[in-house]
């Protein structure tokens, strides 16, 4: 109960809370797990908590919405919902830190890649840089907006190198590169994203050899400085 109260108090002053829900079945029984994620408005630190992990009675299709309402009302994050009831909070061992979840995701991907290396080493070698890039960009700590372009650029470079030595997986690399181009090509022309990467001491300008990209940022800065007027001097 103390943990429930502490979590409720921590979320009370937060305007936006993201929740995740997972349902699964084991031995003809259904279960539901719900987590909450938010950013502290004062410290800007990321926080996460497990709200519930309990038995779900009935078909997922019909009882899921009601179960979520129960859980949300218990933690006072659905004040506008009319059908809110109590939900049991599992206190012992239910809270996971961001590092725990990141290790769990990384472990799942690594075990999958390890199985693939035994059955299809070429496919595993092709997907390995993709899995590493996802690990970086999905991290809950130690990642900023400036990581996006260097990570995607490095992934594209690694796929280009892999393509030279591949025979059967070339169509897979082509599909990955096409998807990356379709999804992220416009981000390499975004001055804010470019500036975010350059301002990170880890990267600076080492992640790109395109002088046009770097000049774009400096031109944007120069334009913004010349057009800005101090209201005190006007």
From TrEMBL:
This is Uncharacterized protein. It comes from the Eukaryota.
